[in-house]
Every structure is written in structure tokens, then in C-alpha cells.
């Protein structure tokens, strides 16, 4: 009996131990399953973040370091994830912004206010600190030109010489220009900008548009810009830039205003500015001597740019119109101490001047709903000595001040849901007294533009030019011709039809 009772007690004890072992195994299985679920969830999170990063790399890459800072991961994958994020961060800091590049490279608007444009885009969050933005633009055109005078085409979007157009009819299908730019934003205050230009149609090189001398690259603009509008409404820039003289913008989709051709300056120098809610002020100490466009002062009787002795100033004020929208009226005025209208006879670009010849400009612009209307006037303070040819029979025409003015309007609308516009503009260059062959040159432009994307514009224009007044040897003295004659011709008429595309990236 005792033996049987012992056996029973042994079986019951074994069963109890087995139950305890089974419970422990079940607990371990539950814990392992929980760990597996957590690991799967972590892997899914990593996969989603990797997909998001891949998508972000295809988008505009201008995010700050804080926006792409890594999350805290478990110790098992922290090292690998950290190195992956560093590689991702280096890619994100260099990117493209199509709309920003179009605005910076657009040769029709904000021509001499690109520094303000850069700072305002940064303030609006469209471009970010600690990033590099690469961009570019290509403009291709096809046109047909007609002149009523042999080899005298007054069209100014290419140099008006017989090396460009010959006869009474000309046609082109050409690359008008290619631009490449780089914007580097280093922290909140410092930016660097550089722009490379290829423009055989408007190059000063010798020969035709296929000559090597006209197929060169140039640094068109480049400067270091200091400013942060979030902290202070002021900025400073040093480098090569457009001078803040006049408006010089155009409502045309492609062809520049005659005012820009006459007074649009490009110079080395240092520029400071104030950007308020309504008031904007720009002041530039421009390099003296003969500069790249429209600015020149004498340096000890030479054109050597060895002194910082030219000054350009601009003041404009924006009035909010009572429409309740973003409609505005902008009025402004500018002054430059020295223009390139200072040479004696015969006139030739970049030759020295005995005396400086300053200029002033007044301009206005109205934005009202879908309408943009603008006008400007610019004039030198003194007569241009070289506009008087001392040789008969042209010696009857006295020296004249240089005047340029223009006005135009543009109407925006949608064509089959595509943002489009039509425009009309008149502008004049006046450099001689009444009756002189170089008296003036007028330009009328009717234009149409359509934006396939915010940075791709298709355009068409009809241009009529009355007069032929090229600046070089304007009043005579052309090499190989009698000094009492001039290639300028007041009665020469030209007509041009242009189709083209401007694509920025």
C-alpha cells in the first residue's frame, strides 16, 4: 500500500513540474512574438522613410539640416542609418528649382533687381539656407527679317551689322542664348551667385555668329550677397552686376526695350540697398573707366577701370491700390554719374572720354488685376560730343543729348487652361537733332507668350523698327568710308517676325 501511494505522489509531482515548464515556454513564445512584431514594424518604418527619401531626392532639393535631421533609432541600426543619412544629406543640399532659375535668368523682368529677388525668394521659403541651387536656361528662335534698305536692319536683339544680316531679307533658326547659374546659400546671411552666358547673336566678337570669337562663354554676373530680410531690411553685394538705373524691364516676351539697350548698365562694383514694405533704395559704387554696358567715367583721361569713381542710385516707392487685391502703383527715379555717352567723334565703344556725362531716369509701373502697364524716361545730363561730326556736309548737325523712353502694356489670361499673355510696347532711342541721319530709332513690338510650365515659355513677336542708328560710328567716321558720311539712316525700316522658346531648369 505504501508503495502504491508513493508512486501516485511521484506522478502528481512530475505533472506539476511539467505544467510549470509549459507555462514558462508559453511566456517565452509570447515575448519572442512581441519582439518579432516590433522588429517587423521597425523595418516597415525604415522602408517607408527610404521611399520618402527617394521621392524627396527627385523633388527640389533645398532643405535645411534641421528638416532632414535623423530620428533616433535602436542601437542595432544607428551606425548604418547615420551614414545613410549623411549620404542623403549631401545629395539634398545640391538641387534645382525651375521657377527660381527662370526668375533669376529671365532677361525681361527684374533686370537690375536680381539681388532683391533672391532675398525675397529666400524670405518666402522658396529657397533655403545651407543649399546650392544649380540652374540654366536655353532660348532658341526662328525669325524672318525684311528691310527696305540694303543690309540695314535695326533689330537690336542681335548686333545690327552686315556681319549679321546682309541684303534686304534674312532668316534665322538659331540658338540665341544659353545661361547657366549657381546660387549658394551659406547660412542665413551669406549667398553667392554666378551666371555664365553664351550669346553669339549679341557677342562683340569679330566675324559672323559661327566665328570662334563669338562662340565664347562669359561670366555675365557674379557677386557675393549679404542679407537676411527676416532679420534686417538691408543688404550688400560686391561683384559684377547690373547697375540699379531705371526700370529697363519690358512687357515683351523676348525683345528688350530700347531703354534697356540704351541705358541698361553692367559693371563691377559694390551695392547696398534697403527693402521696406513700400520703399526701396539702391546705391552702387561702380568701377570707373569703361565698363561692360552703359557706364563709363574718366580715369585720368583714360578708360582704364582703376578707380571706384562712378555712382548709381535708385529710389522707388510702391503704393497699394484700393482694390483689395495685390494691385499696386510703383514710381521711381534713378541717377548715374557717368554713362558711355561721353566719347568724342568718331564714336567707338570703350574709347576714353575727356569728361563724364551723367543721366537720370524716371519710371512707373501699374499692376491691376490681369494688367501690367509701365513706362519710363531716361536722358543724359549733357550733350554727347561725338554726335557732332565736324566734317561737311554733316557738320550742320549739332551735338545732342541722348534720350530714351518707352511704354507698354501686357494682359494675362488663360488659353485652354494654359497661362498666357499678349503685349504691346513702343520705345525710342534719340541721339541727334531734327533731320540728322542718326536722329532716332523707334521700335514697336506686338507679342504673345504662353507658359507650358512655370519655367517654359513659348512666344511669338512682330517687331517694326524705324530708323537705323548703331552706336559705333553713329555720326560717321566708319573705317573705309569718307568721314563726311554715316551708315546711320533715319528712313530705314525693318520688319521682323519671331517664334521661339525660353526653357529654364
Fold and architecture overview:
- The chain has helices at residues 2-58, 78-92, 98-105, 114-123, 258-263; strands at residues 94-95, 131-147, 169-186, 190-198, 217-227, 234-242, 266-275, 279-286, 289-290, 296-297, 310-320, 328-336, 359-368, 371-380, 403-415, 418-430, 440-453, 456-468, 489-504.
- The chain has 505 residues and is an alpha+beta fold.
- The chain has two domains: 1-54; 133-504, Porin (Beta Barrel).
- The chain has a 16-stranded antiparallel barrel. A two-stranded antiparallel ribbon has the order 9-10.
- Strand 15 (403-415) and strand 16 form a beta hairpin.
- The longest helix is centred in the N-terminal third of the chain and has 57 residues, at 2-58.
- The radius of gyration is 33 Å and the shape is globular.
- Residues 1-20 and 53-91 have low confidence and may be disordered.
Short descriptors:
505 residues; alpha+beta; Porin; 16-stranded antiparallel barrel; two-stranded antiparallel ribbon; globular
